[in-house]
Write a structure and sequence with these properties.
Length: about 90
């Protein structure tokens, strides 16, 4: 996570980073909800999250590389898993 933060800070403003994290969180949560009814697993969920992030980030004016999208998805999944553990 520290690597992700340092890497993002080198390329983006704090507002852009916050927006990217928010977009990834929204996308990951949406995909998880949809997967409950569709039965999506693994790679399908990942590809759907990538698609949602691409759409939302474009609307927000953020240009994210494939590597950045992957890192944001991993961070959002990690945060979601931690939230479940705390319950």
């Amino acid at each position: 996570m520290a690597y992700l933060s340092a890497w993002l800070k080198a390329k983006y403003t704090s507002e852009q980073i916050a927006k990217g994290k928010e977009i990834a969180s929204i996308a990951v949560n949406a995909v998880e909800k949809i997967a409950e009814t569709t039965g999506w697993k693994g790679e399908v969920k990942y590809q759907e999250a990538v698609k949602y992030i691409a759409e939302l980030s474009q609307k927000a004016g953020l240009r994210l590389s494939e590597e950045q999208v992957k890192a944001l998805i991993e961070a959002a999944v990690r945060e979601m898993d931690q939230a479940w553990e705390e319950l």
